[in-house]
Amino acid sequence: MSTIIPEDQQRNYEVFRDCLATALLEKISEPEAKPRRRTKTKPKRKTLSSTPSHVNSASGGEDHGLNGEHPDLADPSIKSHVELKENSVPGDDLADFTDYIATETFACLPAELKTADYHDYMASPELQAQFILPLTGADMSAHLPNLDPDIPESLSAYGITHEQKQGINEFLAPVLTAFLISLSTPPPAPSTTRAEACEICGRDWINLSYHHLIPRFVHAKAVRRGWHRECDLQNVAWLCGACHHFVHRFAPHEELARRYYTVELLLAEDEVRRWADWVGRLRWKGR
Ligand SMILES: [Zn+2]
Ligand SMILES: [Zn+2]
Q1: Phi-psi region of 61 (alpha: psi -120 to 50; beta: other; left: phi over 0)
Q2: Whose atoms come closest to the Cα of 260: which ligand?
């Protein structure tokens, strides 16, 4: 039952597959639910090289200033250590699996979405009105009425979805949302600074987005506290979706701004390099 994606849908299919692959990688690399002992790490402890350094500093660390604003710490998921599940080797299997889920799901999307480019999308208020972003799980059965039941079954068999916690609709809603956002994002202006390949994993055939190395969320603070000069605030790294998500799970905004404001600083961390090696091995069929 192999579905063939027609030539004129190939471009959108590849965007969709990237969005799906990002969500799959995120699930697979998600820490197992376990007691949150890591969050109890004592704030004042010195960073040991054997512990992921961000855990310590994210939970308190050296100098937070006096006003104690830690916007990022409210969300425990942000500082959760990114651990790769054992046996989760992305290679041909994961690429095939991603291709399969992406192809079958894409084939069920409303026809307009399979070929629309940015200009079509922006020129069609009907299309925009049909999908109010972000989509939720409840919207999905309307958008994907003919999804092959093998798809939810496969995702659940691989532990990607769980009927109780996160079903197929909840899993696919952010994937379709990311796809629609990329349809509604103007193509980037040609820029000499744009990298050819993801600056973390080196994959060069997937869509890249830019990451503010000093996250915008902390720009004002970064200048006020003298961490960075105004002119450095717009430094960006070009990253694939999976690495971009990884970076934001790796460290909260403030820590990214203070310790990881260049790609080199990020790649100096073992955890980042391990991720880069791991995700860099994920190749699509025929590449
Ligand atoms: Zn990457
Ligand atoms: Zn970013």
Answers
A1: left
A2: 2
In order of 96, 184, 210, 259, the CA distances from 54 in angstroms are 34, 35, 22, 9
Q: Same structural domain for residues 157 and 214? A: no
* Centre of ligand 1 from the C-alpha of residue 60, in Å: 29
pLDDT tens column, 12-40 = 999 999 899 989 988 887 765 544 444 44
Q: Are 136 and 182 in contact, with CB atoms under 8 Å apart?
A: no
CB 167 within 8 A of CB 160: no
* Of 183, 200, 232, the domain-final residue: 183
How remote is the CA of residue 19 from the centroid of ligand 1, in Å?
A: 13
Prediction pTM value: 0.57
Distance 175 CA to ligand 2 centre (A): 18
Between the CA of 236 and the centroid of ligand 1 the distance, in Å, is 14
Quote the ligand 2 centre to 247 CA distance (angstroms): 7
